[in-house]
Write a structure and sequence with these properties.
By secondary structure, the chain is mainly α. It has helices spanning 10-20, 23-42, 45-70, 84-93, 102-112, 115-137, and strands at residues 74-75, 78-79.
Length: 142
Amino acid sequence: MTKYVNPYGLSAKIDNLIAARSLPMQALTKLMGHGKRLIEYLKQPHVQKLMLKLAISYFASFAIVFAFLAGIGFGPLGVGAGSLAAAFQSAVYGGFVPAGGLFATLTSMGMLGTLTPLFLGLAALIATAATTMLWRFCFFRR
């Protein structure tokens, strides 16, 4: 009994490409082989432990840096009472903050909510750098 194959179906076209060993199919086959090897590598217990340590270090450093930056005191209600920004304002400017200065700009950005994405990006950048250094200097010492 012969199996009917639809010559216009996607499966038949893929089979024809594989049989013809076209350049894109060769590249896809090679890429899939690399993907399988990567998955096998990532399944090893010592690699999983390393990845877990790196993930914990990344998220911990991200949380610490973001909490510090958010805690500086430039929030949606202006300068937060008892914050570093309030202490700086009290010590340097007193009751007068010059318009257009860095402090006034940061206060405005905090009230508009545009400071949060900046803090998130900065925290991600610092966390990436810290995790990379930890990976390089602590886990690959010889």
